[in-house]
Amino acid sequence: ATVFRYIREAVEVLSALAPSLAEAMRTIRAKAFVILDGTLLPIDRIAADTPHYSGKHKRHRVNAQVLTDPFGRLLWASPALPGSTHDLTAARRHGITEALADAGLKCWADKAYQGAGGPVRVPFRGRRLKRWKRRHNTTHAKIHCVGEQAMATLKDWRLLRKLRCSTNRITDVVKAVLVLHHASA
C-alpha cells in the first residue's frame, strides 16, 4: 500500500507541473502553427464501461487531445475523455479551437476535425478531387505527419499502452508522462 501511495503522489506532483491550455497558448504564440491530433489510449474494462467503449476500435479507451509544434515536440495534452467521444467534440469541450482562434494561430488537423472552422485546417474529403485539392492534401499530410510522429513518441511510454488505473486518474497519468517526456527530451 505504501508503494502505491508513493507512486500516486509522484504522479500528482508531475501532473501539477504539466502546462495548462492557457500556459501552452503562451508558448504556442511564438510558433508559426501547431498540429492538433487525438488519440485513443486503451484501458482496462471498468464498471461504467459504456461511455469508454470505442466503436471504432471495439475496445475500452479514453480520448486525449494533443498539441504539437512544427518540429514534433509535444506541447500540451488534454484531460482524458471517454473513448466514445469524437475528436472534434473533445476539442470543443476543452476549448482548444476557441483558444487557437483567440491566439490567432493556424492549426493543422486530420479529417476528424471537419467542421471545426476558425484556425483549424483539415484536408479535403472525397475520392475524385481536382488536382489542386490533391496537392493541398499532399502538403497537408506532410505537415500533419509530424504530429503523428509526436503522438507515437507519447505512445512509446509503456505505461500508456494499457492503462490499468481508475479512469479518474488517467488525466494525471497522461500529464505526468508529458512532463517526463519534456524532461527526457
Description of the molecule:
This protein is α/β, with parallel strands linked by helices. It is built from 6 helices and 7 strands, in the order ααβββββααββαα. Strands 1, 2, 3, 4, 5, 6 and 7 form a 7-stranded mixed β-sheet that branches. The two termini are 32 Å apart.
Secondary structure class reads: alpha/beta
> In angstroms, what is the radius of gyration?
17 Å
**pLDDT < 50 stretches:** none
User: Distance between the terminal alpha carbons, to the nearest Å?
Assistant: 32 Å
Number of helices: 6
Q: Helical content, roughly?
A: 40-55%
Biggest β-sheet strands, sense, barrel: 7 strands, mixed
| Residue fraction in strands | 15-25%
Give the mean pLDDT: 88
- Number of DSSP strand runs: 7
User: Into how many domains do the coordinates divide?
Assistant: 1
Spell the H/E element sequence.
HHEEEEEHHEEHH
The gross shape turns out to be globular
In short:
The chain has 185 residues and is of the alpha/beta class.
Provide the descriptors you would attach to this structure in a database record:
185 residues; alpha/beta; 7-stranded mixed sheet; 6 helices; 43% helix; 18% strand
Question: How do the strands and helices of this protein lay out in sequence?
Answer:
Blueprint: H1 2-17, H2 21-28, E1 33-42, E2 53-54, E3 59-68, E4 74-77, E5 81-82, H3 87-94, H4 96-103, E6 106-108, E7 120-121, H5 131-155, H6 170-184
